[in-house]
């Protein structure tokens, strides 16, 4: 770790203020070139503490960069994660105000897990994940970011900014997974009524359940766990689309149902 506790606290406060005032921050990696991934997660955890103190409730976690293609593109060797609070959940049918999200991007045609039991690493495996899962449901994530864009993506900046977690829309159907091979679940994305991309569940670390296991084991290094009742978003199977006001994203998952996210129109 390079940054001391006072600097970590200050940076978390800056991120919180940037989100509330809708102003962009200079990237942490530019100001503190030597800051580490460990520092970045400590900033994120401090940010979570501050949000909880302000009345938000942690309702789940998100993983990012779970596909090999994304990892190769951004030059990283493992996923990252962020926390999800009740303030980030958007009910299906409600509109998402893009002006609240800084640099928004559609990064999430995702399979989300609803846990019925706690999962605490280390050593969590896929079998334990499946046993601890109440069911899965379709999820759309629109990421956020109030850090100035840099010429090259920096994973540390993203982690510090809570993995760029923005808004999450969950489908209304929970599907038990006992008889479903999540690796083979087909996904179709429609944007404003036109099919624009397809994928399969295997794009997320080979199996979305692997992502949940990875996350439980990673959180153990911060003395944290996945809790019963939490939602775990396992990373985008289709993403990289800049949303515009008025856009409607519809994602259809084979056997799991659909989820729709509507972007608010500009008056």
Describe the structure.
- The chain is built from seven helices and twelve strands.
- The protein has 267 residues and is an alpha+beta fold.
- The strands form two sheets. Strands 2-1-10-5-6-7-3 form a seven-stranded mixed sheet.
- Strand 11 (248-253) and strand 12 (257-263) form a beta hairpin.
- It is globular and about 50 Å long.
- The termini are far apart.
Name the features:
267 residues; alpha+beta; Fumarylacetoacetate hydrolase, domain 2; 7-stranded mixed β-sheet; 5-stranded mixed β-sheet
Question: What is the CATH homologous superfamily assignment?
Answer: Fumarylacetoacetase-like, C-terminal domain
Q: Strand portion, in percent? A: 25-35%
The radius of gyration is 17 Å
| Count of discrete alpha- or pi-helical segments spanning 4 or more residues | 7
Can you tell me the number of structural domains? 1
Shape descriptor: globular
Overall pLDDT score? 93
Classify the helix fraction into a percent range. Answer: 25-40%
Ranges with pLDDT <50 over ≥5 residues? none
**Number of beta-strand segments:** 12
Strand order of the largest sheet: 2-1-10-5-6-7-3
What would CATH call the class?
Alpha Beta
What are the secondary-structure elements, in order, as H or E? Answer: HHHEHEEEEHEHEEEHEEE
Oligomer description:
single chain
- Report how far apart the termini are: 47 Å
What is the CATH topology assignment?
A: Fumarylacetoacetate hydrolase, domain 2
Largest sheet descriptor = 7 strands, mixed
Q: How does the helix and strand content classify structurally? A: alpha+beta
Q: What is the CATH architecture term?
A: Alpha-Beta Complex
């Amino acid at each position: 770790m390079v940054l001391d506790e006072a600097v970590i606290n200050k940076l978390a406060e800056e991120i919180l203020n940037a989100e509330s005032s809708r102003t962009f921050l200079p990237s942490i990696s530019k100001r503190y070139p030597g800051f580490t991934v460990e520092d970045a997660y400590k900033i994120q955890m401090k940010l979570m503490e501050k949000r909880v103190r302000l009345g938000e409730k942690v309702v789940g976690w998100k993983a990012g960069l779970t596909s090999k293609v994304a990892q190769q593109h951004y030059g990283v060797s493992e996923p990252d994660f962020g926390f999800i609070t009740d303030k980030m959940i958007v009910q299906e049918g409600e509109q998402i105000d893009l002006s609240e999200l800084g640099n928004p991007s559609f990064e999430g045609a995702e399979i989300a897990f609803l846990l019925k039991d706690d999962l605490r690493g280390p050593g969590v495996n896929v079998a334990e994940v499946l046993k601890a899962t109440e069911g899965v449901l379709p999820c759309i994530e629109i990421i956020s970011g109030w850090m100035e864009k840099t010429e090259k993506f920096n994973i540390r900046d993203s982690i510090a900014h809570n993995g760029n977690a923005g808004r999450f829309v969950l489908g209304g159907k929970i599907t038990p997974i006992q008889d479903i091979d999540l690796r083979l679940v087909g996904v179709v994305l429609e944007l404003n009524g036109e099919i624009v991309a397809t994928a399969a569940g295997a794009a997320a670390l080979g199996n979305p359940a692997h992502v949940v296991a990875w996350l439980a084991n990673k959180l153990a290094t911060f003395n944290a766990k996945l809790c019963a009742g939490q939602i775990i978003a396992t990373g985008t199977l289709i993403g990289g689309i800049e949303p515009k006001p008025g856009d409607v994203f519809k994602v259809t998952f084979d056997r799991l149902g659909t989820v729709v996210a509507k972007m608010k129109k500009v008056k």
